[in-house]
Structure formats: structure tokens, C-alpha cells
Amino acid sequence: MTSRRGSHSPAGFGKSLPERGLLLLVLLVLLEGSVLPLGAAGSPDTSHHTKAGNSAGNGTGNVTHKKAFPVLSLDYHHIQTPFEISLWVLLASLMKLGFHLIPRLSGIVPESCLLIVVGLMVGGLIKLAGEEVPPVLDSQFFFLCLLPPIILDAGYFLPIRPFMENLGTILIFAVIGTLWNAFFIGGLLYAVCQIQPANPSNLHQLELLPCLLFGSIVSAVDPVAVLAVFEEIHINELLHILVFGESLLNDAVTVVLYHLFEEFSEVGTVTVLDCVLGIISFLVVACGGVLVGAIYGILAAFTSRFTSHTRVIEPLFVFVYSYMAYLSAEMFHLSGIMALIACGAVMRPYVEANISHKSHTTIKYFLKMWSSVSETLIFIFLGVATVDGKHDWNWTFVTVTVILCLVARVIGVVGLTYMINKFRIVKLTTKDQFIIAYGGLRGAIAFSLGFLLKKELFPLREMFLTAIITVIFFTVFVQGMTIKPLVELLAVKKKQEAKRSINEEIHTQFLDHLLTGIEDICGHYGHHHWKDKLNRFNKKYVKKCLIAGERSKEPQLIAFYHKLEMKQAIELVESGGGVKMPSAMPSTVSMQNIQPKKPPLAKPVERALPQLPKGREEEIRKILRSNLQRTRQRLRSYNRHTLVADPYEDGLGDLLIKKQKMIELEKKIKDMNNYLTVPAAPPDSPTMCRARLASDPQAYHTKSVSDSVPAIQVDLASPQSPDSVNMMDEFRRAGQQQQQQEDQGLTMRPPSRPGEAGGARDPQKLTRCLSDPGPSADEEEDEPFLCWFLSRPKQR
Amino acid sequence: MGSNSSNMNHIPDGQQLLQDTGFSAAQIIRLYERFEFLDKDNTGHLRPEDLETVPDLDMNPIGARIIGAFFPPGKETLDFGSFVRILAHFLPADSNRTRAGAQQEPANSTTGKLRFAFQLYDQDRDGKISRDELLQVLRSMLGLQVTEEQLQCIAERAIQEADADKDDAISFDEFRKSLEKVDIDHKMSIRFLR
């Protein structure tokens, strides 16, 4: 087994990054291709070796003649399976890295295509090496390990509102559309196979039931493929949820049809009773799946209510309950996908109200990570399995399948839309229909289902697999690659970067109430009426059970408002305080725990402050600059599954506090000969600290609100970086001084004393600040804010 | 339903309504049935008390406002024509038929819908949503669950965000602008049964 590692040497350091990336890619593929067979080949050798060693050892026991103690030995067999799995995962991740290093490529070709190609290459390499390709897309492995993370990720982050609003449409597409596809394709395929009586081929032995089974396998739109392709084209929310929702919900139909036809194929005949049972079975599968998922979801939500003392394992509950929901559903042959979606969707609002922010971030990142790796692996394995499997290429069968898939989809979508539009308020246009039809991608689920077919019952299994793979390749490559330009061409509405404003939220709720009222007046029990009833039931009973403590009463608007404030505070920090907010700023920083209270804002207070000598001013600048350095957090916007830049990283919270304090400080110095002028900080968000402060258990304690002015405290018990401690302590001490209270953390009070001689306290505070200049100023980065900030003194 | 012009004879202004609003004859008949149902004392007019008997409306945070919208200040009774005209705001916009003599702006266009909603905020009809009016709405929607300070903050922020001309109130255009991302047509339409 020759090592191919030496065959490629990355020559020329002057090459640009994309080329280097490409080279890296090829290297990795070769590496992978060479190591895997090495592993496979190595294991028999080493096992021989160890056996020989053992026998020699035994021999020694009998004969007592000394053999050298093996200082270093190779035992690949011992670690083979996990090692290979890790290698595959590593390959998948490195591929992902590589693709994003080459921007041109990822712009033209969707990731899924590239991954399939990589899989093909790796499979080809392994085959060339003469080794047996590991059966990677084993159906068991696929359905139990690879698929759940993707579906859970989709279900947990499913946008509920558009999903529910379009539920009728989605269900019709999923159920009736898939049924239509299955029967159309299966039936016509059978018909086509039966023609050409003069030229009998093995097609003629194809009976109706296997054809229908094949039809049902190949007709289902695949969520993995849809996700992979659609997430790159940023289409508007409605179309996205329609196609995606359809791909999720048609699982129930697929499961039922598959089992139905499989059973019937064994028996050979179908009776009316069977059909009726089939329909009942469908209802059981779908509703049962949802029920199982909902039960587990509620269990998870209930469990999360008590996790306030063990925050670390919160994400675990979410994952384990969801996975168990999936497995339980699969146990009863119910729809596992629907169970998973139901579980994620049901538990999310309650769990999010209960868990700490870090757990939330953990869950989000883990889900994205797992689903990303899973998806990558699936596509690579698809490529490998293509190379591996025995293929039986039959021109007629394959081409007819592909054509029929397209035709069936188009007719199905057009026909159904015509019916659906009669009931929809916002009709689906032709453009929409085209995208829906074009977005019907098939993927690995179809392949796995085909793989599961038993050879004895289906002698033409290889032919089926070949056809399935061809359809998958066709949809993923052709449709996947061309959908983006088509979307541009047809000028389909893109996803709006929705930054919801508080206005929107208020007005939307208002309109909800309005419409509910109007519906009541008309006596029309429509959409709004039931939604309102559900909300009320939710608020009255369910939330009380499932959400811990005070959060159960927090209205949605308030939660939204807090979130918004938080985001804004973070944005402010990032932009270095350049955001000008016309509103006032409280004179002290506000922190908040669970109790959502907030003092009123006050207009900017003009304080008469003593002059700062120039030297002091320099010191202040140094302090500010050095501390503001750390606010520049790295925000990488993760491309995958619309995971937006998440500024919620450790330590940001303290920096926010610091920043706020600094801004307040600057404000106080504002009047000093116009040396330093900074804009007012935005009103502080109560939830800011709730999320940010490091040690969660201590950060939350509800303080009984006895004062008329709520004063909230927060524990700065977090392990902070040594640099920042000084500053924090300064502020804390200053704050405490100001408050003359024995508060543990920073407290807030309304700036209710405009005429106060703040001057007396402030220089004290200032000197305190200045006497401890804080960490040594790092001069590398010049923040834009600082540049602006520092240039201000010139203006008068 | 067959030709309904004959069935509509007993409906006051039936033909006129057919023309002015976008309702179909069947819908108008159905609405008339509902009107008669609500009109307990059979006077041919509705009074605020009649509307208050509608179940669930009292649980609606802005129930009183909605009833108020049907009864503009000064009018104590509501006849069928006005009833239908107000409800016409909630027709889906693409069921507009070309009507002879259609007004400039049909009630169920986006602007018409928004204007209706705006008037619900703007109780004193001065064309602006002042801070107080916004506070009232917030208070009624959020009720006792939040403190006064929070309401103030939210109202403050809302006005800041929307107020382009800095007059400390939200005008109709600003209102419309803040809702530009929302699909008003979808959000403010009821599927009236045929």
C-alpha cells in the first residue's frame, strides 16, 4: 500500500489563498483516500501481529525464553471504528472549510453538489486502492444517527408563525401532493415498463406494487436537500416555509406508503380493506408522531423548570428528550420526523424562558454544529455509496423516472395551487408555483429507503437504486445549481433582513387583537379566533406549569422589548459608541435580573463639572481606550442555516457594563471645556446582564421590590480577566460610593435629581478612576470610535 | 347561491352596498343575518350594548375600542350600511371588483386598512398618535403585568423609532412606514365566507 502523501507538494508560497485552498482540498482527499484503505489493510496485519505476539507470549510462558518487551506497537484494530468515524467527520469538516476558502466556487455551486463530488472522489480513491468501500450509508446509521440532528435543528428553530399560518397549504402539498406523485410515477412507470411487448426485457417482470413502492420512495421531497439548497438562496419566508414544511410533513406519507406497499408486495394482492387500513394507518402515523413529540416536548419543558441550580446540563435535556422522542416514534413505526419537529416546536418557548442564556447559546450552536456535520456527511456518503453500489443501468427506466418526477411535480403543484388559492387570502402566484415545483429536491432519505429494500422481494433492487441515485443527482445538481440564477432571473422576492422594531411588534399585536375582535363581531370563527383562544389557554394554564418563577407572567411584548434593548446595547459596544441615541441616559448603569423593572428615562442632565487638567484628560483617554479594546469581539456570521452573528459571547457582559460606565463617565466630563464629547448612551436594557453576566446561578436573584424605585442588583461574581477587574472594581467602588449602599453589584437608580451638585462626588469618582489607570493601554488597535473621540477636542 | 338581487330586496341599500363595497351578494346576505342576530330588539339599528353582548369581545384588550370604531362620536346607532362599510375594510384586497364610480381608495386597500387601524389608536382624531394614546393602548394590551415605568419606556422607544419629524407623535405616514415589512393585506383580512 503505497502512500500517496508525497505525490503532491504545495509548491510556491506566492500562490493566492484560493489556489492554496484548492491544493489543500486535493491533499486532504488524497490523504483520506490513502488512510482509509491503509486502515482496512492494516487491521488484518496488526491482528496477525498481535496474535503472533500472543502466541509467542504464551510460548514464553511455557518455555520461558525471553522476548523483547514491545516498547512501541501498532494496534490499529483496537481503535479502528471510532478512528474511522472521526476521520470521516474530520474530512467532512475540512471539506466545509475548504469550500469557504474558495469564494468563487461556493457562489456558483451549492455546497451539497461539491460534497457529493468529494464523496465520489473519495469513493473512487478507495475503490482504486482495491479496498472494499465501507458501507457508509447504512440505513440504520443514517436514520438513527445522521438524520435526527438535522431534523431537530429544523424543528427547534422552525418559525412557528408562518408555519401555522400556512399549515393548510403545507399539509395539502405534503399529503395530497406526495400521494399524487407516488401514484402517478408508480403507475406510469408500470405502464411504460409494460410496453414494448415485442422486446421483452427484465422490465417486464416489474409488477405494479413494486412500481408503486418505487414511486412512493422517489416522490418524497427531501428536507436535507431542500435545506441545503434553499438556505443559500435566501428566498422569501413564505416560499421557504412552504417547501420546507412540505418536505418535513411528507415524511408521514412516505412512511405509510412505504410500509404499505412493502407489506402488500409480500402478500401480492390488495383489497379495499387494505386501502382503508392504509388511510387509518396514515392518520395514526401522523397524529401519533406529533403526539409522541408533543409529550416529550412537554416533559422537556417541565424538566427545564427545575434546572435553575444545574445550568450546565440544561442543553442535555433538550437533546436527549428530543432524541428519545424520535426513537420512541420510530419504535412504533410512527413518523419520527414529525415527532422530532413537534417536540422541538412544543418545548422551545417554555425551555427558552427557563434556561440560562448560555444554555440557549449552547443548544443553538450544538444543534447547528451537529446538523451541519450530519448534512455534510450525508452528502459525502451519498457520493461514496454511488461509487460503491452495484448498479444496474437501464436507460428506459432511469430516464422515464427522471422525466416523470419532474412532470408529476409540476402537474401536482399547479393543480394543487389552483385548488388552494380558492382558500388563501394571499394567493400563490405563478412565480411562487414555479419555485415550489422547482424546489422539490430528492435526497438521501430516498436513497436510504431504497437501500432498505430486501433483495428477495425486489429482484430489481439495483435498478431501483440506480434510478434513485440518478434522480437525486439530477435534482441536486441540475436543480440545485440553477435555482439561484432562476430566482434572480424571475426576481422572486428575497428574504427581508427583518429587524423587527418595537413598533412592528406593538402594532402586530394590536392588529391581532383587532382582527380577533372583528371576527367575533362577524361571528366568524376563523384563524384569529382560534389563535387567540390558544394563546389565552397557554397563558392561563400551560405557562404556569412549565415556566419557572416570574418569567411565566412576562408578556411577549416585554420579552421582545428586552431582547431589542439588549441587541442595541451590544451593537453600541461594537460600534464603539458611535451610535447616537436621542434619548436620555440614566446617570447610573442599570442591571437587571429576572424582575423586569426599569426606571424611567430622564432627559440629559447638564452638570456643572470642574475642569479637568490636560494631564488628566490624557489619562482618561488612555483608560477608555484600553478598556474599549476588549469590546471589539470577533463576530463571524455563520453562514449555515441562517445562524446570524451571535454577539453573545463570554465576557461581553462585563464589557458592556464597563462601556456603559465609561459613557456615563464621559457624559459627566462632557461639559468640561468640550474636551471630551460623547453621545449619550442608549437606555440600558434590563435584560442585558441577565444574559451576560458570567456565573449564572448567582446572577439571578429576585429582589423583592420594596422601594418605589426599583433597584436591581447583579452579582459580578464572574471570573473576569485580570485587566478588567481593576476597572470594574473602580466603577463598583465608585458606584457604591455614590449609592452609599452596601450593594453587592451595580445598582441603578433613576436620575431624579437634576439639580444636584454632582460635582462634589464626581471629581472624587474621577480621581478614583484616574488614580488607578487600569491595565496598560494596548496601542495596536485604534478604534474608530476613539479616533473620532480623540479628534473631538479640536471642535469647540 | 343563485341570483341574489331578489333576495337582497329586503336589505336596505343592498344594491348600493354591493357597488360600494367589495362584498359579494352572498356575503352581504350573510352579514345581514348576522346583523339581525346582533340586533336583539329588532330596531334595525345596533347600539353599543348590542355589540357588547358578543362573546369574547369583553376579553379582548381593545374590545372597547373596536366597538367605539363602529360608533363614531356623536352616533349612537349603527345601521346596516355603516356596519357593512366598516367591515369592508377587512376584505382581502384582491377581491376588488371594478365598480362603476368606485371611490378613490377602496376601503380594503392597504391604505384603507391602515387608516382604520390608525383611527383606533388615534382616539381624538387629531391625525397623530400621541404618546398618551400609545400609552393607553399599551396599558390595555399589557394590563397589569407590567409596571408603569416599563410602559413608559416602551412607549418612549416606540415613538423614538417611528417619529421621523420629531414631533413626538406618530403620524399616519410614520405609522405606515413602521409597518412596511408586515404584509398588511394578509394580516388585516378576514376570509368572509361566501
From TrEMBL, chain A:
One of its GO terms (biological process) is regulation of intracellular pH. The keyword Calcium does not apply. One of its GO terms (cellular component) is basolateral plasma membrane. The chain crosses the membrane at residues 21-40, 109-129, 141-158, 170-192, 276-300, 335-353, 365-385, 397-421, 433-452, 464-487. Residues 52-61 have a biased composition (Polar residues). InterPro entries: Cation/H_exchanger_CPA1, Cation/H_exchanger_TM, NaH_exchanger, NHE-1-like, NHE_CaM-bd. Gene3D superfamilies: 6.10.140.1330, 6.10.250.1040, 6.10.250.2020. It holds the Pfam family Na_H_Exchanger. It catalyses: Li(+)(out) + H(+)(in) = Li(+)(in) + H(+)(out); Li(+)(in) + Na(+)(out) = Li(+)(out) + Na(+)(in); Na(+)(in) + H(+)(out) = Na(+)(out) + H(+)(in). Residues 584-688 form the Sodium/hydrogen exchanger regulatory region domain. One of its GO terms (molecular function) is potassium:proton antiporter activity. It is found in: Basolateral cell membrane. Belongs to the monovalent cation:proton antiporter 1 (CPA1) transporter (TC 2.A.36) family. PANTHER family: SODIUM/HYDROGEN EXCHANGER, SODIUM_HYDROGEN EXCHANGER 1. This is Sodium/hydrogen exchanger. It comes from Sparus aurata. The lineage of its organism: Eukaryota, Metazoa, Chordata, Craniata, Vertebrata.
From TrEMBL, chain B:
It is found in: Cell membrane; Cytoplasm; Nucleus. The keyword Phosphoprotein applies. Residues 109-144, 155-185 form the EF-hand domain. InterPro entries: Calcineurin_B_homologous (IPR051875), EF-hand-dom_pair (IPR011992), EF_Hand_1_Ca_BS (IPR018247), EF_hand_dom (IPR002048). Keywords: Calcium, Cell membrane, Cytoplasm, Lipoprotein, Membrane, Metal-binding, Myristate, Nucleus, Phosphoprotein, Protein transport, Repeat, Transport. Pfam families: EF-hand_7. Its main location: membrane. One of its GO terms (cellular component) is nucleus. Gene3D superfamilies: EF-hand (1.10.238.10). The keyword Lipoprotein applies. GO terms for molecular function: calcium ion binding. GO terms for biological process: protein transport. Belongs to the calcineurin regulatory subunit family. CHP subfamily. PANTHER family: EG:114D9.1 PROTEIN-RELATED. This is Calcineurin-like EF-hand protein 2.
